[in-house]
Amino acid sequence: MTNSIHDLGGVHGFGAIPRETGEPVFHADWERTVFGLMMAGMGTLQVNIDFVRSQMEATPPTEYVRLSYYELWLRTLEKMAVDKGAVSANDLSTLARGEDVALDKTTDPFPPEGMAGFVAGGASALRPLDTPAKFKVGERVRAKTDSPATHTRLPRYVRGHLGEIVRDAGGQIYPDSNAVNGDDQPERLYSVRFTARELWGEDANPHDTVVVDLWEPYLEPTP
What we know:
Elements: H1 29-45, H2 49-57, H3 61-66, H4 69-83, H5 89-96, H6 115-121, E1 140-143, E2 162-172, H7 175-181, E3 187-195, H8 196-200, E4 209-215, E5 219-221
Antiparallel strand pairs: 1-2, 1-5, 2-3, 3-4
Helix pairs in contact: 1-4, 2-7
């Protein structure tokens, strides 16, 4: 979620979001396959979810808006596999032509045991902290206007705006560092409520609010 096409929250000009009644989890079998490949690939390549997101954000903007959801997943998985030395770009081109590839090295496959449970429940991001909370529930805070060049979960549309802490979720993996070096570097996570008018002006519905989960380094106290 960097300062580019990948941070689409609050951006105008893309039309209405399509809503599909009874939308299936997968629209085609190949999407199911890509999902499975990504889950196994993350374990085999030893990468974390924040790193994967940062690699997706490295996709050129014109490609990012053109690719479907799982096409983007597949492109990202291919890029990571090449970068990690699991395959070469030539291997991928050969496979795309429908030809087999004989790899010089093999990688132990990710064990299937427990995969269903992992997909269903994920892995906890909770981490212990030995520092007190900087903010408390009910306190007014401002989202910082930082514009990092690397991965962040601070949406552009809330930067600089005032909100209210509504939940302290404790110490959790800090995505900004986890995406770069795999370091959990836990920070406290808060749920922050913003009014629609604070974010989008007086024309917004006065009754609407948006709650965003924001890590402590993203926030600053109000005067």
